[in-house]
Amino acid sequence: MAWPRSLSAPAPRARLQLGAEARRRAGIVLRLLAGVGGGYAVAALFTMALSIGLPMPRAEAVLTATMASFAVYAAAIVWAFAVRGALRAWAGMAATAAVLALVLLLLEGHLP
């Protein structure tokens, strides 16, 4: 006699769905961390590089760079969720931060 379906062990497919759901949630958390943390780093490096590179008085350059960084930060967060995977989001943030750090090194000669 077979046990009723409700009393039997969960089907293997149900276990696979739970694993897929956990991977999906982990991907969302990783993208969120890449967007918020990596986006902050990219926006900060962008602000530093732009404030040094703009040919205007120092106070105006810093204010302009700071205002522009809000758009960069928002774009970084959106981009983290627009790419295909969380690894690409992290790699893109790291590559952008590396390029901005090199620009900052060239403009100033050292990182602050």
TrEMBL record:
| Annotated signal sequence range | none
Name the coiled-coil region(s). none
Question: Which UniProt key words apply to this protein?
Answer: Membrane, Transmembrane, Transmembrane helix
Superkingdom is: Bacteria
UniProt cross-references to InterPro entries, sorted A to Z: MFS_dom
The transmembrane segments are 32-55, 61-82, 89-107
- Protein name according to UniProt: DUF3649 domain-containing protein
